[in-house]
Amino acid sequence: MKMDAQLLPEDINLNTYRQLMARYARLMEISRQLNSTLDLGTLLNRISAAATELTETQEASILLIDPNTGELRFEAASNLSGSAMEAIPVPMEGSLAGWVAKHGEPELVEDARSDSRWFGDVDKTTGTITRNLLAVPMRVHNQIIGVVEAMNKIHDKPWTSDDVNTLSALADQAAIAVQNARLFQQSDFIAEMVHELRTPLAALKASTALLLRSPLADNQREIVTIMQGETERLTEMTTSFLDLARLESGRTRLKIEAFNILDLIQECVRVVEHRAAERQITIDIAGRPCTVEADRGKIKQVLLNLLTNAIKYNREGGLISCAADLLDEGDNCPPNCARIQVRDTGYGISQDDQQRIFEKFYRVASTANDTTGTGLGLSIAYRIVEVHGGQMEVESEVGVGTVFVFTLPVAERQSLRGDY
Ligand code: ADP
User: Fold this and answer.
1) What's the pLDDT at 417?
2) Ligand 1 centre and the CA of 307: distance in Å?
């Protein structure tokens, strides 16, 4: 590529510019390589090797925050074996990596040993002498998950602002790859666990069903009925864990097809209407037919969850209204999307609870004791809508009712007038 030196900033010559471009090109290549593995060990080794290469340093290491304990731990270093590092926890207070993790900013230290935040234990154990270093945070979705450190510039060259930029860009890419690998590991573990749990749970379910068919004293029947209900709940929970793990790790495969969302709403209402009738709750459906492009099975799961909740958290004799319509750009949403609403006349959800309602395991304290549930349904529904490129929101007033609204992409051939 021919470059016009006059177009470059005054303080940068053509050679430096070429080096810079080569570095960025290499960074792009490394980023692609990082995303090609989901094995955490391989990934961490690649990141530390890339950090030394890009910053022209002798060593680099990666410290990750343990999601369970909040502690920082050495996970990989370009010059060390895994077993040597695992022995070195690094304190959040009183270490440079801890400082960077807490402040979320890069930090360049020209003379490590005179810095009061320098944590010397690692050098002592490994026999390394750290002279200077650059530490940058690893951030994913605004959350710091660790720190990448590059140590000792080769030939004691000076550090540049470009080193800071390149290592920061690498750390951001690395953070996403680490997060994906962790979720992948987790979902593999959960898949195995769910599989292992299913067999004893099926046996429990069959035994309680058998027991209930035999003559039992009233109090015994009551106990076995509780056992049966709880076994059912455990089975549901294991399936939910698996769903969530798959959704979070990006392993959910969507079977996208075009279908009429109003038909699906009707189908879901038929599934739950006997439960609504038990509490004298009426369900009505409004809106025009509209063809969405989505995974029908997954959207059915979303609708069934919203409808079941609208029944569970409704008052006796209450009302549930479902609606679907097409939106255009003026409606403050992405163009060409369908809006689906499930409204109830139930207990309502306070402003504070609304902030947390889509979190895993969150159940509103005032209703948790009166109803059974896991607190996972809404977080799954939220993520299912999210992986379709849609959004889910809640509006509610305590004592009046709640409306859950979500959007889905519509089929392209459909006009916004709603005819299809
Ligand atoms: P679960 O119903 O299993 O507890 P969800 O994730 O589906 O779990 O819902 C989380 C919590 O949100 C529920 O425990 C309940 O407190 C609250 N909630 C959900 N839907 C409604 C609703 N329509 N009205 C009032 N509260 C609701």
Assistant:
1) 41
2) 11
